[in-house]
Amino acid sequence: MLFRCTGIVGPTFHRPEPGDLIEIFRGTYQHWALYIGEGDIVHLAPPSEITGPGSNRLMSVMYDKATVLKEQLIEVVGRDRFHVNNLLDKKHEPRHVCAIMRDAHHLLGLELPYCVLRGNCEHFVTELRYGRAESQQIHYAVKVGVGALAVSLKILTEAWRRRGKKRHIKGRTLH
């Protein structure tokens, strides 16, 4: 299988091996798949991730069901970038490749519950590889969201504090 250089990200490219996790960069989010060999992947695809012209991938948050599909990596990647990212290998022992492949093939064609926060494509592939469903991009998004909320509250608090000082300086209090 030949991989186009435009689809590869990072300083070095590791040819995917069966059981590897593939991270596909979609701009504002990452789509995840499991490499099963011969250029094929298995991934959990809400209707917005099913390849084809005119698909609106950002709409995945609107769906509560997704289908487990086997597709060509290059077809799913399209013009986006991707790389092998076995992101939890240092945290969790990967399952045996035979078990990963067996379970991935067993799930093909099934429609599964889909939730961006609790059951997305990253949860799906990490469950296959490690036996545990985890999503680092959700952890990161929550952390960023909480940080943004804290900054917003601090700005609002400071604005209200300054507004209160201005009222006091003018010698009048408004309620």
**Widest beta sheet: strand line-up:** 5-1-2-3-4-6
Distance between the termini: 72 Å
What is the arithmetic mean of pLDDT?
78
Profile the largest sheet: 6 strands, antiparallel
Number of strands: 6
How would you briefly describe this protein structure?
The longest helix has 34 residues, at 136-169. With 175 residues, this protein is of the alpha+beta class. It is built from four helices and six strands, in the order E-E-E-E-H-E-H-E-H-H.
Verbal overview:
The chain has a six-stranded antiparallel sheet with strand order 5-1-2-3-4-6. Residues 1-11 and 138-150 have low confidence and may be disordered. The relative contact order is 0.16. The protein has helices at 73-77, 97-107, 121-130, 136-169, and strands at residues 21-25, 30-37, 40-45, 65-72, 81-84, 111-113. By secondary structure, the protein is an alpha+beta fold. The protein is elongated and about 75 Å long.
How are the SSEs placed, and which strands pair?
Elements: E1 21-25, E2 30-37, E3 40-45, E4 65-72, H1 73-77, E5 81-84, H2 97-107, E6 111-113, H3 121-130, H4 136-169
Antiparallel strand pairs: 1-2, 1-5, 2-3, 3-4, 4-6
Top keywords for this entry?
175 residues; alpha+beta; single chain; 6-stranded antiparallel β-sheet; elongated; 19% strand
